[in-house]
Write a structure and sequence with these properties.
Blueprint: H1 3-15, E1 21-29, H2 44-54, E2 57-65, H3 71-81, E3 84-94, E4 110-116, H4 125-135, E5 138-143, E6 146-151, H5 155-161, E7 168-171, H6 180-183, H7 193-201, E8 206-207, H8 211-215, E9 231-232, E10 248-252, H9 257-265, E11 270-271, E12 281-288, E13 295-298, E14 303-307, H10 314-325, H11 334-345, E15 350-356, E16 362-368, E17 374-378, E18 383-386, E19 396-399, H12 411-422, H13 424-477, H14 480-507, H15 512-519, H16 538-553, H17 558-591, H18 596-603, H19 605-611, H20 615-665, E20 670-678, H21 681-689, H22 691-703, H23 709-723, H24 726-733, E21 747-758, E22 761-765, H25 771-783, E23 789-793, H26 801-815, E24 821-824, H27 828-833, E25 838-844, E26 849-855, H28 865-873, H29 876-886
């Protein structure tokens, strides 16, 4: 056996799971002693017992025509099956007993009425049947060619006879047909005041054949004067195999006649089909600690209420549940709750809880004060440890004392309500998609910012080189570049002449080899390029050529040649300088109107030409980066639009669900609405931490105002994409802090209002209400939190009893069938009017706490009844005082 199964087995043994359960009942069957019973075999009793067990019937009543089933047959059947087997009778009531005149239906026709008796009553069933026949006018009347034994007394007269019997009285098989000759049912019920009077005052319940008939007695139909009456279906079996084929359900703890009668008298304890019950629930728990040394509790899947005097431990149980299930604790109460847990559990305390998840799986969850991890054990004994409760996949809604009203001041609590109403799974899915898109936006924005930084660097280089090129072009267009080239050539040639003369003078008088050494590196040409002094250099060039030729040919005459050449070159130098100075005047005149920048550019134009060789490739690289940025901006624009659509989808879903819920909440005077897309707390926290990024976002929103930050960003990205506006570029990409704001987004808020009837303000928002009004507004919303168990400590706090009786009680009755509820309470109205399936009474000696009693308040005889009266109503004397003072009559035993 697995650990989960072992825990569940011990839970059943230690926790005594006594609570109201939905049990099968079949209250209209015939015994083998009926004259029209179809099977007469010797094993008829055995077959009937097998049918009862096979169909899992908890209560079966046999109602033979005008007589009681044999007592020994009933006793044997009860012993064989271990089920509650009752004796009853099916009586014929003539039509005039139902105040139907002959003009409407012939009085010889008759109807069937089921009567069941308490086997442990003051008198046995046989006594009461004799009383019926003694006082209710038995007659034999003709019907369908035969004599029928029936009663002509009215149902009221029959009820008077059975007043002390505590009998069950049920008109049979409504609504079969409108032909009384074949149906034996009171068919004309919806507009028959006499019958409806009997339903209200005489009949315990109604037996129907069609569920549609039962719908007319749900308390909401004017056709039946808004009667709320229990309706059942039964087999009307005349053979073993048909027993139980058509059955009903009643809520009881331990099947007994009195619990059955109480269930029939309280319509909410009966059902034609088994209620589906909550998808998930807390099955039971164990607490081992300081205050509870070893506490075992079993819970109903429906409504559970923990009662006891203050300090008895009921709130401690709820805090242990909140601890083991990892439910959120409001920040304002975190320290108080932690201190309470330490007092309950101590440093080594441990809590174990067995739950049924929405997927049907059972899961054992353990958590200790020592390490606070969640230890999970699955049905196949697989184990897992978690540090957060999300992995439990067990939805719960747990509120500690006075936490209901905190929704007025805590937006996070309101959002939990809002998303539970809208459907947490769907909202979570939308938000996960939105977060993924927002993260993608942030990452893409960061990448775009990096590429934009590269683009700006390239663009600055290109712009500088383009300006240089533009200046060069202007100089070229004015022929200044050619003039500058001539200036440079003339200067170079003049300097070459001077160097040559100096070298010749140095070589004069030296040997040939020495001369050649000196002249090494000297070009044979002073310059052949056309220039303003080229003509003047012609003679010097000839002399230089002659020198080189002479060095080789006439080494002996070299000295004379050198000396003669230097003299002649010196004489030519003056002409060359004159030509150079003339050119300088022309050059100065041509450049005198240039700006200093143009002059510097003219002087360095060759260097600039070299630099601007890379302009084309830089322009190409810059344009490629720009195209990449444009693509990223388009993607960012689409992503922002996609994110905004997701946020709108979330808001629309919430609004639709809230509007639908308002139709239910209107009866409580509560109205909800969505305050769409408010700035989230994350925005506020980031604004505090990243002031520059916050100011940048605000400036963007002022330039492109939109209802959502990401729609503003969409517009900013789009504007930048269309014209590469540097102002938008600066705002979007200059501050790295802006990126922190890109992965968060707005969230909705839930507006809660209560109808208080102020002059000029019919509904008031929750933050303007008193504590009592806040609870009045919030509790109906809590009941509509459709996911998982609802666990609340003293939900009645600040609620008046009239509101609990008129609204909360009926709402709990309706909601508990589909959702498990666990409350602590000091309010008798909440406990009794919710008809809690399980009431757990706690006691304490001041040091330790214990479970004193637990069970279903089924009848006055239930073990828990006395505890409820003592703790919640102040005991029997207090109740009797109320009865006398309220004028409700004498005490009824």
């Amino acid at each position: 056996m697995s650990r989960v199964a072992d825990f569940e087995k011990e839970l059943i043994m230690r926790a005594r799971p006594n609570y109201g359960k939905w049990l099968k009942i079949d209250l209209h069957n015939h015994s083998p002693f009926s004259m029209d019973y179809k099977y007469k075999g010797a094993d008829v009793g055995q077959r009937i017992a097998e049918s009862i067990i096979r169909n899992d019937l908890s209560v079966v009543m046999f109602t033979d025509h005008s007589r009681l089933p044999d007592q020994s047959f009933i006793a044997n059947l009860a012993e064989q099956t271990g089920r509650l087997i009752l004796r009853g009778v099916e009586l014929n009531l003539f039509v005039d007993a139902f105040d139907k005149g002959e003009g409407k239906v012939t009085k010889d026709w008759y109807y069937h009425l089921l009567v069941g008796f308490d086997p442990e009553g003051r008198h046995p069933p046989d006594y009461w049947l004799q009383e019926i026949f003694r006082h209710c006018n038995p007659e034999d009347r003709p019907s369908g060619g035969a004599q029928i034994r029936g009663l002509s007394s009215t149902p009221e007269q029959l009820a008077e006879v059975l007043k002390e019997a505590g009998a069950i009285v049920i008109p049979a098989h409504l609504h079969t047909t409108r032909d009384p000759q074949t149906s034996r049912s009171v068919d004309d019920i919806y507009s028959d005041p006499p019958f409806l009077r009997h339903v209200e005052k005489v009949f315990t319940a109604l037996e129907v054949t069609d569920p549609k008939t039962a719908n007319f007695f749900d308390g909401k139909h004017s056709e039946t004067n808004n009667l709320y009456k229990a309706c059942i279906r039964s087999s009307d079996s005349h053979e073993p195999d048909s027993l139980g084929w058509r059955h009903s359900f009643a809520q009881m703890q331990n099947p007994s006649y009195r619990e059955l009668k109480a269930a029939l008298e309280l319509p909410f304890r009966t059902a034609l089909t088994r209620p589906s019950g909550p998808q998930s629930c807390v099955i039971g728990m164990q607490v081992k600690g300081v205050f509870f040394p070893d506490l075992w509790l079993s819970f109903s899947p429906h409504c559970n209420v923990l009662i006891g005097v203050k300090g008895s431990g009921k709130t401690s149980v709820l805090e242990c549940l909140r601890f083991v299930l990892g439910a959120d604790v409001p920040e304002s109460r975190a320290q108080t709750v932690e201190s309470h847990l330490s007092a309950i559990l101590g440093p080594a305390g441990i809590v174990k809880v067995l739950v049924k998840r929405p997927d049907g799986a059972k899961l054992l969850i353990e958590r200790s004060m020592a390490d606070k991890v969640f230890q999970l054990t699955f049905e196949d004994d697989r184990q897992e440890k978690l540090t957060s409760p999300e992995g439990l996949l067990f939805p719960t809604y747990i509120l500690g004392w006075h936490e209901i009203e905190q929704a007025a001041t805590d937006i996070n609590i309101r959002r939990v309500y809002m998303d539970t109403i809208a459907g947490k799974a769907r909202i979570r899915s939308i938000e996960e998609e939105a977060k993924a898109i927002a993260t993608q936006i942030r990452e893409r924005h960061t990448h775009t910012s990096e590429r934009y930084g590269i683009y700006r660097h390239l663009d600055q280089q290109v712009s500088r080189l383009q300006e240089l090129r533009k200046g060069l072009q202007q100089l070229t267009d004015a022929n200044l570049i050619a003039l500058r080239d001539q200036y440079q050539t003339a200067t170079d040639q003049r300097e070459a002449l001077n160097r040559t003369i100096a070298r010749l003078e140095q070589a004069s008088g030296k040997s040939r080899n020495y001369v050649l050494d000196i002249l090494s590196g000297q070009e044979r040409s002073l310059g052949t390029t056309a220039s303003p002094i080229a003509e003047a250099l012609k003679n010097s060039q000839e002399l230089l050529t002659h020198i080189f030729d002479s060095v080789d040919a006439k080494a002996s005459d070299l000295q004379n040649i050198l000396s003669d050449a230097v003299i002649k070159m010196r004489s030519e130098q003056s002409h060359i300088d004159a030509a150079y100075q003339e050119f300088l005047q022309q050059y100065a005149h041509a450049t005198e109107s240039l700006t200093p920048d143009q002059k510097r550019l003219l002087e360095t134009h060759r260097e600039v030409l070299e630099q601007t060789k890379a302009l084309a490739s830089l322009e190409s690289e810059r344009d490629l980066v720009k195209n990449e940025i444009l693509g990223l901006l388009q993607e960012l624009t689409l992503s922002c639009d996609h994110l905004a659509a997701k946020l709108d989808e979330r808001t629309k879903l919430r609004q639709e669900k809230i509007e639908a819920l308002n139709t239910v909440l209107s009866q409580f005077g509560v109205r909800l609405s969505i305050k769409a897309q408010q700035q989230s707390q994350e925005f506020q926290e980031l604004s505090t931490r990243y002031a520059i990024g916050s100011r940048t976002l605000q400036e963007l929103r002022s330039k492109a105002p939109e209802r959502l930050a990401h729609l503003c960003l969409k517009k900013a990205y789009g504007t930048f994409w269309s014209n590469f506006d540097y102002d938008y570029g600066r705002l979007l990409f200059d501050s790295a802090e802006l990126s922190y704001f890109l992965s968060v987004f707005e969230n909705d808020d839930l507006r809660v209002e209560l109808k208080v009837g102020k002059a000029g303000q019919e509904y008031s928002p929750i933050d303007q209400l008193s504590s009592g009004q806040r609870c009045t507004a919030m509790f109906p919303i809590l009941l509509e939190q459709g996911e998982g168990s609802l666990i609340v400590d003293q939900p009645e706090d600040n609620l008046d009893n009239r509101h609990i009786a008129n609204f909360i009680g009926p709402a709990l009755l309706q909601n508990k069938r589909n959702r498990q509820m666990i409350f602590t309470s000091h309010n008798a109205n909440l406990v009794v009017l919710s008809d809690a399936e399980s009431i757990l009474m706690f006691e304490s000696d001041g040091t330790t706490g214990c479970l004193e009693e637990g069970g279903f308040l089924a009848t006055v005889d239930s073990p828990i009844t006395r505890h409820v009266m003592d703790v919640l109503d102040g005991g029997d004397r207090a109740l009797q005082q109320r009865i006398l003072k309220y004028g409700l009559g004498k005490r009824v035993s």
